[in-house]
Design brief:
Layout (H helix, E strand, L loop, with lengths): L1 H16 L4 H4 L6 H5 L1 E11 L6 E14 L2 E10 L2 E15 L2 E14 L5 E11 L5 E6 L6 E7 L8
Antiparallel strand pairs: 1-2, 1-8, 2-3, 3-4, 4-5, 5-6, 6-7, 7-8
């Protein structure tokens, strides 16, 4: 009799634990496309070998668009020292590193002054995407002996203005 009662108690426990309450405790995560895609507002710094101090430009915008899976297109346009710089990184890869979204890719930079025909350069991108703290680093190794444009989401600090 004791064995039957123990068996019955064990069966009740197992049935109760098999209830489908798992969905209530699941962490629901939006698809990465919904988290990453969007328009980011901030400022940028432009650093190049012949320029002693990085140049700061406020009110910058970066657009990140989902392509497929963990691939994203990144578009950034800035006007620096009279030059219009368009950076296009197609198919950048997003991964998770230390709990943050890491983005890396290669693409093109188009640089033009005024009405002149744009000149094409190779460009690369690396950065982290975190709501309110996104930082993207675009590198153009053949522009001015190496140029780095860093986009930082948010308002420029007073010390850099």
């Amino acid at each position: 009799m004791k064995l039957s009662a123990l068996t019955l108690l064990l069966a009740v426990f197992c049935l109760a634990s098999c209830n489908n309450d798992e969905k209530e405790n699941e962490l629901i995560i939006d698809p990465v496309e919904d988290i990453i895609s969007g328009t980011y507002q901030g400022y940028s710094t432009f650093a190049a070998a012949p320029i002693p101090e990085p140049l700061l430009t406020e009110n910058e915008t970066v657009t990140i668009t989902a392509v497929e899976g963990n691939k994203f297109d990144v578009s950034f346009t800035s006007v620096i020292m009279g030059y219009t710089l368009d950076l296009d990184i197609d198919g950048a890869t997003v991964s998770v590193v230390d709990g943050k979204f890491q983005i890396d890719g290669n693409g093109k930079a188009y640089m033009a002054m005024g009405d002149r025909e744009p000149v094409l350069y190779d460009a690369s991108l690396t950065g982290t995407i975190e709501k309110g703290a996104t930082q993207l680093i675009f590198t153009c190794p053949t522009v001015m002996d190496g140029t780095t444009i860093t986009f930082i989401e948010g308002a420029a600090p007073d010390t850099e203005k």
